[in-house]
Amino acid sequence: MEVRTYRASTMHEALAMVRHELGPDAAVLHTREVHTRRLFGWVQGPRQIEVTASAGVNVPSRLPPGNGNRFAPAPASPPPRPGRSPATVTPAPDHLPQVGTELPGEMQGQLSDLQSMVRELCRRSKGDQRRDLPEELFRLFADLLDCELSEEVARGLVERIRNEASGAELADPVLTRARIARMIEAEIHVAGPIALTPGQRRLVALVGPTGVGKTTTIAKLAANYHLRERRRVGLITVDTYRIAAVEQLRTYADIIDLPMQVVSTPREMREAVQQMGNLDLVLMDTAGRSPKDEVKIQELRAFLTEAGADEIHLVLSSVAGERALAQTADRFATVGTTALLLTKLDEATGLGNILPVLRSSRLPLSYLTNGQNVPDDIETADARRLARLILDVPTSSEDDY
Ligand SMILES: Nc1nc2c(ncn2[C@@H]2O[C@H](COP(=O)(O)OP(=O)(O)OP(=O)(O)O)[C@@H](O)[C@H]2O)c(=O)[nH]1
Ligand SMILES: [Mg+2]
Questions:
Q1: Edge-to-edge, what's the strand order for the sheet holding 311-317?
Q2: Which range, 90-94, 122-126, 350-354, has the best average confidence (pLDDT)?
C-alpha cells in the first residue's frame, strides 16, 4: 500500500493535488495542520494543510467519483492509474490488510494507526446514500474545513444546503456561501450585554478552565461599566489558590478604583456579598478549574450557590479544540452556567471549532475578547459578526447575506 503526503496552503489545494496524482478513487487517510519551519527550524513559518492519502486502500473516497462519493465533485476525466481496477469496492473492515510482522516497529505502529482510520472511515460510510456533489459544493466543503469546521459539521451544513437550495443557487458560490453564513448565524444565540437595573445589584461570576482569561475579562468588564457607563462596580475573588491571583485582581481594582473583597470560605462570601449590596454590578472572579476535577468543580458550585450569583458565564478559549470545548461546557454545567464567553479570538487560526459547543451547550454567548488590552479588547457577542468571523469573511466586506 503506497501512502503519500501532500502539503498546501488550503485543504482545497491539497485535495486537488491528491486527486491529480492519485486519481479520483484515492482514499484520504488523515488531515492535519502543520507549520513549516524557517531559519534552521527556529522560526515558525506559515500554516499548511497536510493530507495523507493512498490509492491502494479500498475505502470510500472523499475525492471525485465514478463511485458516487457524497463529498466529491463530478469527475472531469480521471487520470489513468496503472495496475488498478477502475471500480472501487468498499470492503468490510475485516478485509483490511494485516500489519506485517516483518515491518520495523515504528512503521508497524503507523500502519496500525492507518488501519484504525480506515476502519473508522468504513464505519462512517455505512448506510450512506451515495450521491455526487457538484464541484461548487465540494469546494464549499473544502473551504469549510479550512475554517476549522470539523468534517462532521461541514458535511452537515453542505448536505443541508444541498437539500434546501435551488439549482440556480447551488450554481452560484456567492449565494451558497451567503446561505451557509445565515445557517451559522441562526445557530448562534447571544445573551446581550449584562443588563443592569437601577436599585438592583447584579452579581455576575466568571468560571472556567485555567488561564482562559477570566481575570483579564473581569478587568475589561469592570473598567467599561465603571469608567464608561459610570456604574458602581465591585469585585470579589475566590481565587486564593494561585499565588499572585489576588494581587492580579487587586492591581486592576486599584487602577480602576473599585472596592474589592477576597473570600476563602462560604461565610466570607455571604458577608462580602452583603457588603456590596448597594452597588450596581458585582463581578466575581474564580480560580481556574480543570474540567476533569470533579471535586473542585463541586467546591466552586458551593461558593456560587452561597453567593446567589445572577449570572454565571463560562469562559472558554477559542483556541481550544472542539472536543475540549464541548467537554468543558458539559462539566461546568453542574455549577449552573448561564452564558458562554469566548476569549482569545485574536489567537485563533479559525473559529469553526466553536460551533459544536454552541450547539451542545445551548447557552447564549455573552462577550467575545480579542486581545490582552484592558479595557478595549472586548465586545458584546453578535451572531452576524461571529458567523462572518467563523467563515473568515472580512467584517468590512460589503457583501450582504
Ligand atoms: N491574546 C489574548 N490573550 C488574552 C485574552 N484574554 C486574556 N488573555 C491573556 O491570557 C493570559 C491569562 O489571562 P488571565 O486573565 O490571567 O486568565 P485566568 O483565566 O484568570 O487564569 P487563572 O486565574 O490562572 O485560571 C494573560 O496573559 C492574558 O493577558 C485575549 O482575548 N486574547
Ligand atoms: Mg484568574
A1: 260-262, 233-237, 281-285, 202-207, 311-317, 339-343, 365-369, 378-380
A2: 350-354
Q: Name the burial class of residue 8, with classes exposed (0-12), middle (13-18) and buried (19+) by CB atoms within 10 angstroms of its CB.
A: middle
The model's pLDDT over 288-308, given as tens digits with 9 standing for 90+, comes to 999 999 999 999 999 999 999
d(CA 132, CA 68): 5
Q: How far is the CA of 104 from the centre of ligand 1 (A)?
A: 45
195 backbone dihedrals φ, ψ, rounded to 5°? -95, 125
Q: What is the pLDDT of residue 136?
A: 79
Q: What value, to the nearest 5°, has the Cα angle with vertex 46 and ends 40 and 48? A: 110
Residues 6+ apart with CB under 8 A from 68: 130, 131, 132
The atom of ligand 1 lying closest to the CA of 211 is: 21
What lies within 8 Å, CB to CB, of 285 at 6+ separation is 206, 214, 215, 218, 235, 236, 237, 238, 239, 245, 249
Which triple of cell numbers denotes residue 28? 484520504
For the CA of 212, the nearest atom of ligand 1:
19
Residues with CB under 5 A from ligand 2 (ion): 214-215
Q: Whose CA is nearest to atom 27 of ligand 1?
A: 372
Q: Ligand 1 centroid vs 285 CA: distance in angstroms? A: 12
- Given a cut of 70, whether residue 226 has pLDDT beyond it is yes
Residue 262: how many other CB atoms lie within 10 Å: 17
Residues with CB under 6 A from ligand 1: 210-216, 239, 242, 245, 288, 343-344, 346-347, 369-372, 377
- Check whether 394 has a pLDDT greater than 80: no
Q: Given ligand 1 and candidates 300, 372, 379, which is best to mutate, with the most ligand atoms within 8 Å of its CB?
A: 372
What predicted TM-score, i.e. pTM, was given to this entire model?
0.71
Q: Atom of ligand 1 at shortest distance to CA of 239?
A: 23
In angstroms, what is the span from residue 314 Cα to ligand 1's centroid?
Answer: 14
CA 198, CA 90: separation in Å to the nearest integer?
67
Question: Which ligand ends up closest to the CA of 372?
Answer: 1
Percent of the residues in the chain that have a pLDDT greater than 90, as a whole number: 53
391 CA → ligand 1 middle, Å:
25
pLDDT tens digit string along 74-123? 334 333 333 333 333 333 344 444 444 566 666 777 777 777 676 556 54
